[in-house]
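Q: What would this complex look like in 3D?
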Amino acid sequence: MRRLGAYLYFLRLGFMELVAYRITVLMLALSVPIVLFARYYVLAALYQRPGQMVEGYSLQGILTYLICAWLLRSFFRSAVDRRIGRDVRSGDIIFDLMRPLDYAVMTFFRALGKSLNRMLFISVPLLVLFLSTDVLTLPREAAMWPVFLLAVGIGFLIAFQFQFLVGIFTFFTGYNIGLIWTFDLIVQVLSGLLLPLHFFPGVMQNWLMALPFRHIYYTPTQIFVGHIAPGEAVPYLINGGLWVIGMGLLNLVVYRAGRRRLTIAGG
Amino acid sequence: MEAAIYVQNLTKVYRVGRHREGVWGGLLDLVARRSQPVKAVDNLSFSIEPGETVGLIGPNGAGKSTTIKMLTGILKPTTGEVQVLGVTPSKERNRHAMQIGVVFGQRTQLWWDLAVIEAFRLLGKIYRVPPADFEARLAHFNRILELEDLLHRQVRKLSLGQRVRCDLAASLLHNPPVLFLDEPTIGMDVAVKARMRTFIKEIRKNYGTTIILTTHDTADIEELSERLMMIDKGMILFDGSLARFKESYGRTRTLYIDFTAEVELESLRALIVDSDVKLLRPMPKRVEIVFDRNAYTAQDLIGKIGAQFPIGDFSTAETAVETIVRDIYEGFYA
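A: Here is my prediction, written as structure tokens for the whole assembly.
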């Protein structure tokens, strides 16, 4: 890995990029509690009696679920879809494609840097905030943590793969802003960010279990709230890991096809 | 000696999409594209010696950028062969990437949100430039391009001229033997252009870099390149020295006339303009006339005009390269 040094430099610059925009970071951080507040009260309408359970969740359980999922989201989205789209339209992507490096790996490290930045400046402060106001209590079971972190890693990779896919869609069309919004909403629903997936009807659940989306937020969060015990998590992680590979192959195929189509007009 | 750049029967056919609108249109395009073929580069052949500087000119959409993109390995030729220092760009991508530097005047390889120096250091890592060489080159570029003040500024906040200077330095940090400059002086003021040209000359002198330059400013070519290639509709119209270019196409001369009183431009136009004579930059009391010296002499024209209009003063000049080029684009020689 002679090139690792260069890739790590992409991570470093990706991390630094967001620091340039303090207001953006602040707005992103503020948006999470606001969204959580709204989501929580919509779901709270389901609960009529104290101590009532809906689909295996207490009201406190739902809150924990939402907080965990949204904290993950606060650093999962590195907006590579937007960046790739912008680079294609401006033509600046030409330089990245000319490097003696792999475009996807470069993009990944840059996105990872950005996500680490978000984790440090948005997710961690929010976590501290939630912990200090007793809306969130961390699970006590120590065995949960390594399994949870592994699931988060898989979720992050799948989230990246989807964003990359939407990004390189511009190789074909030159435009992806509409797709970014549409696709993000679809992901929100299918990945369990909006609702835990077992709130959905049975048939739909079967479909959702056959798709990769659930590994983004649903699987790690289920582990976090204790619905998947650490001992039972292995099949979930294997399934998620296979999806990471599958999505990687899909991206490789689409990237190769797109790279042939990409003309970079003008200039 | 082996050619630095060797191009044989190079052709690029684009399929230009006719896009549907919107998100669903985009999705539809993915399954059922509508497109038509456009030949951007048509059977091009040329070779460039090591250390040569070649100016590539041609009207917008002539195929200059497409040619450059195939030479840099960004685009794969439809048919034909390209070799740069013995490497086929589209096949040995990484090896090729290490030996070229590229500047696109309209684009940047710097990072918009970061200070200039950050992108420089990244490039140092990417091209594995030894730290001592990196610092030495940076110091050198700082001196000629006056980058010192710019290095720690956010790229977004640089002016165009400042940014392109930084981009030029960025493209040379790994000291590539071949340099591609695609409209490097676009949008620059006269002073910045002059500094750019000095820098390019110095680079060439110090490192013997082979340079291919596309531009719309013929002064770039007059100052920098010994050789000029003119491309239109994907084909080479002219390939040779600048002197020979002036000889073969510079058959026009320019006549400047000052009138003592305002003249009726329309009747002046009616009097002299035909396929061999053109009126440029007409003003009520001063006109610039470009004529083919095989068809007319200055005396013919002055006599003709003087009979009807009050001539105060006149002078003649060799037509500037810029005018020759414009005339070719406009079909004056067709």
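A: To summarize the key features: Chain B has a mean pLDDT of 87. Residues 64 and 306 of chain B are 44 Å apart (CA to CA).
Q: Very helpful, thank you.
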